[in-house]
Amino acid sequence: MEKSVEPVLDIRDLYVEYLTDRGPVRAVEGVSFAIQPGEVFGLAGESACGKSTIAHSILRVLRPPAVITGGQILYKGSDVLKMEGSTIEGFRWAEVSMVFQSAMNSLNPVVKIEHQLTDVLMKHLGVDRSEARKRAEELMDVVNIDKQRLAAYPHELSGGMRQRVVIAIALALKPSLMIMDEPTTALDVVVQKDILQQINQLKKEYGFSILFITHDLSLMVEFSDRIGIMYAGQLVELAPAGKILSEPLHPYTKGLLSSFPSITGARAKLSGIPGAPPNLLDPPIGCRFKPRCAEWEGLEMEKSPRLREVAPGHMVACPCNFPGEASGVN
Amino acid sequence: MSSTEKTTGTASAGGPRPVRKRRLLGQRLPWLYVIARHNQARLGLALLLVLVLMAIFAPVISPGDPSQSYDIINDPPSHQHILGTDPQGRDEFALMVWGGRVTMVIGFGTAALAIIIATLIGVIAGYFRGFVDEFLMLVTNLFLIIPGLVLLVVLAAYLKPGTGTVILALAFTGWAFHARIIRAMTLSLREKDYIAAAVVAGERSFSIIFRLILPNMTNLIVGGFIGSTIYGIGASTALSYLGLTRMTDISWGTNLFFAQNGNSLLSGAWWAFVPSGVCVALAALGLAWINFGMDEISNPRLRAERELRKALGRKATRRVRATPVKEREH
């Protein structure tokens, strides 16, 4: 990874809270990572660890009672968190677009595909209907759907086609970054693969970066360049995809990897991770994984461990020492 | 394995940490908790409570027969009669205090009856569909297109005058609108999978309707009840004002009738009509405000948005267009 290139997205020390009746839920705490041009950055972790919260906070589309309570989200150098009403509306979709988690449900069931596509074009580019229609046809070509289907309603399409339409809408304004929040969760593996290949193809053509979110680790390792592992609102490990798979360092990452079977490796009993994630209304002090950690060395800390680089490009937030390191604890 | 078990043991021994407790009231009756925290609803509840208590304790607040005539008519407010006397020489304060009894009994009675009719017809039509639905909706639509006030006048003229008659007449003309809403909601609820599961499990229609469908429409029914109460109070006042109810009853409406009859408006005797008029308006206002609070109970998003505004001290933003940012020490 070249450090001289300016990253497309640089998240620094992001904090997000949900204000509830019972106090603030600290959904994201001190998360930092950067996405380089053309890179696929994967964000993994179990349900409710804050993956989607991060994705939504990049576009600032988190609904109440969410509040961003600290940090910076730099898009090509400008801070998204400092943008005001109309600026952020121009920024959304044109610069960063999103394929939502329930892509099947993000299409309006009573509006034809054509209008859902032309809508975004007319609104952002100010083109007229016939021009928008022409572009919509091109977009349908790009995602390999017959132009005729522009006249269809969402329920007349298959799940995979709907997914592709949603991707086409996300591509419409040629954004530099596309956030994909579990884009293929509802699809079977064959369609899944088909769509991911197509996204890869499009990425080469258009040169956008992808923030890819899923809890399907095997899919993620295959698809991403770098992977960030999240636990209880914090980033616990960040490394190139291959490294995560071959030499995971954080005990949580190891636990995640041993929770699904490998096709080629030796037959091993799947172990999983004992216990349950902490309540984010009142998370454990110090390392949040401590109560479930099999390798905990009895070290108490006042603050959560920060990410530190233990090998080139391999960051981990764990109070334990790792081989090849002078002094682990910061 | 043993080390894993040990970890699990310690994790579960600590158990889920106790979360800061909601006030006891909120745990027992969550909806009351919402009402209590909603400024408008609280104000509305207080308003209504004052009026209801005034009506209940009328014999204590204003002892004696309210229809007793004094020697002096159209007397402006004085020490003897704090709100003056009406064109019949009756004490205006006593009339206002006692008038609330009949008016509010009619209001709540009408609402209860109208909502019971509406719920029965709506749920039966929506649940059984087909011919039953066709027939019941034909009847409902008939009632919807008959001009309410005209039917009221006709009914009031033919039926024996009295409080019960007014309630009957008003409920008769006021149920159709709510029946349609409840039918629509029933139609959508009965398509849900959990209803299908109950049908397959052999649950009887009666129990499906009352245990599985009705509880999901509590907000509609309560909202409808409050709305109908406003209607009942307003319409009964209008009927009395037109002289179509029994004039020996004392209600806010008959007070207005006698004020009008005695040309109080022309002679500038404001004390004859302002007290009762204001009471009707306040009762309606209080009920409407309570309904706003009810809205938030059934739609938590509204509540989240409002509480967020409160927490951030933003009064101007009607709608949050981007996730708010509020820096905080971490």
Assigned CATH superfamily of the domain at 46-56 and 90-297 in chain B: MetI-like
Kindly state the mean pLDDT of chain A as a whole number?
83
Query: What is the approximate shape of chain A?
Result: globular
Number of helices of chain B: 17
Query: Low-confidence parts of chain B lasting 5 or more residues at pLDDT below 50?
Result: 1-22
CATH architecture identity of chain A: 3-Layer(aba) Sandwich
- The span between the termini of chain A is 25 Å
Helix/sheet category of chain A = alpha/beta
Backbone shape of chain B: flat
Fold and architecture overview:
The complex is a heterodimer of chains A (330) and B (330). Chain A is an alpha/beta fold and 330 residues long. Chain A has one domain (9-316): Rossmann fold. Helix content of chain A is 28%, strand content 23%. In chain A, the strands form 2 sheets. An 8-stranded mixed sheet of chain A has the order 6-7-8-3-9-10-12-11, sandwiched between helices. A 4-stranded antiparallel sheet of chain A has the order 2-1-4-5, with helices on one face. Chain A starts with 8 loop residues before the first strand and ends in a 14-residue tail after the last strand. By secondary structure, chain B is an all-alpha fold. Chain B has a domain at 46-56 and 90-297: MetI-like (MetI-like fold, Orthogonal Bundle), CATH 1.10.3720. Helix content of chain B is 70%, strand content 0%. Chain B is flat and about 75 Å long. In chain B, 37% of the residues are buried. Residues 1-22 of chain B have low confidence and may be disordered.
